[in-house]
Amino acid sequence: MKFWAQRKAGTAAAEAPSAAFRPLRIAARAMCCAVGHNAQAPTAAINARLNHFRETGFVAPGGTPLAGGALYELDAWGRNA
Q1: Could you report the per-residue pLDDT of 15-59, keeping only the tens digit for each?
Q2: How far, rounded to the nearest angstrom, does the alpha carbon of residue 3 sit from its chain's CA centroid?
Q3: Were 45 and a residue from 5, 11, 16, 50 both cysteine, which residue would form a disulfide, CB within 3.0 to 4.6 Å?
């Protein structure tokens, strides 16, 4: 954080950027949501502006029904799985 504060202030960084950042390696990606159980399906659904949200049996404190997206092939809607 010190590196970015100094950079924003326009002062010379006292420490090298390499000391402020650690190497990061992304080995895989995954996603599980209402429109798919892998990363490719939700990506396609987002690009196509699709979703699987619908009114649930849950209500907000004011009595307004809540919308949610259930996972396909899982029978855990509305209870702890």
Answers
A1: 555 666 778 888 887 777 778 778 888 888 889 988 888 888 888
A2: 27
A3: 50
User: Domain total for the chain?
Assistant: 1
In a domain, 14, yes or no: no
| Contact (CB, 8 A) for 65 and 56 | yes
**Strand, helix or coil at 69?**
strand
Token pair recorded at residue 15: 């420490």
- Reading the block at residue 60, the tokens are 């907000």
Q: Which is higher by pLDDT, 69 or 65? A: 65
Q: Is 80 helix (H, G, I), strand (E, B) or coil?
A: coil
3 in any annotated domain: no
Contact 39, 29 (CB under 8 A): yes
Beta bridge partners of 55: 67
Task: Look at residues 45, 46, 55 and name the one whose alpha carbon lies nearest to residue 77.
Answer: 55
Per the structure, the complete domain to which residue 56 belongs is given by 25-73
- Three-state SS at 70: coil
